[in-house]
C-alpha cells in the first residue's frame, strides 16, 4: 500500500451535483488517489439544512451547516451552491486561505470572474471551472491548454439543453413552442420557471465564459448580446426545414473587426439562428450540448456530449479535483487566467452574417422592386427571394383589408447595423404589412 | 514591454508539420509568450539535408544537421522526425538532459512509450503527445485531465482519415474500394504505399495509445487486435446502407471482463464495423476523425475534427509547447504517465458484440433449420434472418453446380470466441457454399 500525502477536500452544497460528487468520491477514492498522487480526504459537506432530502446518500457525520468553518483548513474547496452570494464570499475566503477552488457556477464566473481569478493569482492558487460550461463535455481545458498555441476565430455553441430540446421537438415532432416547453417541463428538462433558459440568460453566461477564455479578454456578461427563443414560431421552424436549415439557439464568440475603427475586437452573442442541415451542429438533438470551434491552424473542431445532469457535471468536477490534487503534489503556483490580449468588446452592430427575412406585403405590381430598392439603399445585397400569395382571409377567417403576399428574402453577408436599418425601413414602408420573421444564418 | 524568462526551443524535423510549427511560432511568438509567461526562443531546426525543399519558408540560419548538438542546452525539444530511430534516441537524450519533449510520433509511442515515459519520470521532465492521436483534435488532455475523475467504459475512434475517406466514398459515391483508394491517392489523402493506413496499422497504434491512457495500463501495440479495410466490398457497404448502417474502421479500447477468470481487463482492437446511421460517428465524413467516449459518469462524449494535415497537427504541437512553457515557469516535476491500474490485456476472444454474417447456401428444404441449429449449438442467438434466392448463374455467367440462396444473419450479442467457432462450423457445413461477409456491429 502506497502512502500518499493527504489533501483535505471540502464540498459546499449537496444538490444534484454535490450529492453525486460525494458519492463518486467515496466510491472511487482509491482510484482517484492513484491518479492524483495524493489521498483525497473528504472532510465535510456544507449544507443549509442537515435533514433536507438528497438525490444520493451522504454519510451524516460529513454534513455541516458551518461552511466558513469547513473552508478553513481545506486544501481544495468545491463550490456547488450556485448563485452569486454566499458562493462568491465562500470562494474568496477559500482562495485567500490558499486553497484551490473548483466551481460549476457559471452565473458567478460570468459576473465576478475577474475578481475571483485575481484573488487566485494573488496567492498562487488555482480556480477550476470545467463544469461551468457544457457540464461533462471537456471544453475549458481544450480551450485553455490544447488550443493555447492556436488562434481561435469563432466558437458556436449549443450550450443550453432545455432550449435545444424544445427547438428539436418543434423540428422533429412538429410541436409548437408552448407544447414543446410543456413536454420539456414534464420530462425534467425545463425548470418550473424556465426564464433563464428560454430567454437565453444561461447561454449568455456561458458565451461570456467561452469568449473570455478563447480570446484572452475579460468579457462581462452585460456585454453579451442576447435574444431568447420565445419568439421562434413553428412556421419559422417549418420554413427553415424546407429551406435546408434547422433553428438552433447559438452562443457565439467571435474575433471581429470594428467597422468604424478597423480595430480587432471580440463579439459575444446569443440568438436563435438558422444552421444548415449539413453542419455538424445540426445533428445535435434533444438536450445534448455541443461546442463547435473554428481555429486558424486546427480548422474545425466539435465537442459533443451531455450539457447538464448531476452525475455528468460531477464527472467534470472530479476531473478538476484530480488536476488540483496533482498541482498540490507538484507544488508551485497555479496558472493565472490569461486576459492579456484585452481586446475591445464590440457591439452586435459589427457582426457580419447572412439573414433570412419574411415579410407580408400588399399584393400589387411593383412591390418586389420597391422592396429590392430598399435593401439596396441600405447596402444589403439580396441572394434569394421566394414569393407566395397568401389568401385574402386570415387564419381567423376575417377578410384582410388588402390582399397580401409573403416574401422570404435571403441576403448575402451583411452587417447587423445595415440590416437593422433595412428592417426599420421595411417596417415603415407603405407596401409592407409586417416583418413576420427575422433570423440570422450561421455556419454556412 | 514585459520581460519574460527565455526558454530555448529546439525542433527536430522540418517536414509538413515541422515547417508549419516553425512558421506559426515565428508569426505568433509574442502571443504565445504572453500565454505561456515565458519567451519562446527557437534556437534551431534539425534537418537531414539543409537544402531539401520545404512546405514553408524556414530562415536558413535556424537550420542545422547537428541534432544532438541542438538538443543539448534546449529547454523544450519538439520531435517531428517520425519513425522509431533516431527519434527514440533523440528523445531519450533530450529527456535525460532535463528538457521537456513534445512529439507527434504515434509509432514510437505505441512501441517504446513505457521506456520514454519512464525516462521522463526519472528526471521529472514531461513528455507531451497531443498531436500523436487525431492531430488537431484535443483528445489526450481531455482523457488525461478532464476525465481523470471518471471511469472510461469504452472509446470508439475514427482515427485514420485515409480509410474514413475511402469508406465514405464507397458509401456516398458508390465507388469500389480500389476506385476510392485511387481517388484518395489522387487527392493526397493516401500515401504512395497505403499499407499502414488501409491495413489498420496506423489506427492500431492510436488504439494502443488511447487504451493505455484511458485505462491507466500499458497496452503494447502487439496486443492490439487488427483488421484493415482491404476485405470490405461494395456489396457489404450497400447492404449495410440498406440495413441502416454505415461501415467505419473503428479503433476500440474497452474495459472488459475475462470470460474465463472473471477478472477485469482491457481490450484494444481495430476492425471495420457496422455503425448505425443514427450514431454520431456515422456522420463523420471524408477524411475527418472523431473519438467517441463512453464514461461512467460523463455519459457519451464525442470529439470531432481534422485528424491529419501539417498546420492542423502544428496546432496541437503548439498547444503542448504552451503547456510545457507554463510548467517551466511554475517549476516542479511533470505529471508522471499513469499506468497504475495495470489491467490485464484481454484477447479478442473476450469481446462481446453483435455480428452480421452473410452466407451463400444451397437452395434446398431444411437449410435454414440446419444453420439455425448450428448457431444455437455454439451458444449464439440469432436476432434477424433475411433470405434471398440467387440466380443459378454466377456473375461470370457460368451455371452454378447447385442453385444457391443468400442468407444474411444478424446475431444478438455474442462472444467473439463463440462466433468464430460458429463461422468455422459454417465453413465446414455441407449446406453452406461460402461465408461471404462477416462484420461486427458497434455503437448500438
Characterize the structure shown.
The structure is a homodimer of 444-residue chains. Chain A is an alpha/beta fold. Chain A has three domains: 5-132 and 311-330, Rossmann fold (3-Layer(aba) Sandwich), CATH 3.40.50.720; 140-307, Dihydrodipicolinate Reductase, domain 2 (2-Layer Sandwich); 351-441, ACT domain (Alpha-Beta Plaits, 2-Layer Sandwich), CATH 3.30.70. Chain A has 13 helices and 17 strands. In chain A, strands 7, 8, 9, 10, 11, 12, 13, 14, 15, 16 and 17 form an eleven-stranded mixed beta sheet that branches. Chain A is elongated. Chains A and B meet through helix 1, helix 5, strand 12 and helix 11 of A and helix 1, helix 5, strand 12 and helix 11 of B.
Distance between the termini of chain A: 57 Å
Reported for the largest beta sheet of chain A, the result is:
11 strands, mixed
Number of helices of chain A: 13
Portion in helices of chain A: 25-40%
Assign the CATH topology of the largest domain in chain A.
Dihydrodipicolinate Reductase, domain 2
Shape of chain A: elongated
Q: What is the largest interface, and how many residues per chain?
A: A-B, 60 and 60 residues
Classify the oligomer. homodimer
Report the portion of residues of chain A in β strands: 25-35%
Instruction: Identify low-pLDDT runs of chain A.
Output: none
Order of helices and strands of chain A: EHEEHEHEHEHEHHHHEHEEEEHEHEEEHE
CATH class of the largest domain in chain A: Alpha Beta
How many separate domains make up the residues of chain A?
Answer: 3
Supply the helix-strand structural class of chain A.
Answer: alpha/beta
Cα-atom radius of gyration of chain A: 25 Å
Instruction: Say which CATH homologous superfamily of the largest domain in chain A is assigned.
Output: Dihydrodipicolinate Reductase, domain 2
- The CATH architecture designation of the largest domain in chain A is 2-Layer Sandwich
How would you state the average pLDDT of chain A, rounded? 91
Number of strands of chain A: 17
